[in-house]
Specification:
The protein is of the alpha+beta class. It contains seven helices and twelve strands. Bound molecules: fe (ii) ion.
Amino acid sequence: MYGQFYRDGICEIDFGDAVLDTILQNILNNNCKKDFNLITKYRGTFDLRPSAVSYDDVFINVLKKHDIKRQIKNITFKDYSLFHVQVRVVNNNMSYMDWHRDTYYDKHGNLVGKEPHGLKLIYYPSFTEEQEDRLLYLLGSNRILFPTNGPDQQLFKLLKVKKIKSNNQKAILFDVNGLHAVCPEQQGKQSVRLIYSFLNKKQILDDHGDDDLHMRAMSMYEEL
Ligand SMILES: [Fe+2]
């Protein structure tokens, strides 16, 4: 699997859990536990606040159930820890995040995002028979980063787009340096996704050592 991940920047890994699905479905139905709310981040998106890690242990337990820590090591050969866990509801029929890299250099060569870039694991559950479009990824775009982002457009002529659909048995692991885009929601529908962000442990400590939320996510992961 590590060869495929190195080449493409994305792979599927086994995921999912019945308890997790019930909790996510309740959140999707805006039936959150006391003291928790869905708060808008981007237009048409709502994040579980104050935090997913304090909402329920299932968000960490499912990582243990599927041996995610070992899997990430075996797929990336890198040393990652958990930076952030987010539960996000989307009801936007425009993409709230069109094609982008999480880390890149803008047209003036200025850095945008984390350096070095991290990794995301996203679970898109499906509560109906139908599997729906969730994410697009430009395969192999993770292998090249230009000193300014202008030439990125050329890559669409050279590389293939992979479409990720909702799936109750799989999550996707991807290098956030590759170009990716969120698929728009169908008119009148909404969906939920569970997003884990990983960065190097030292990087988390250096940049967010004073942030209790990130420290908690990191230590829960380190103890797995
Ligand atoms: Fe992104």
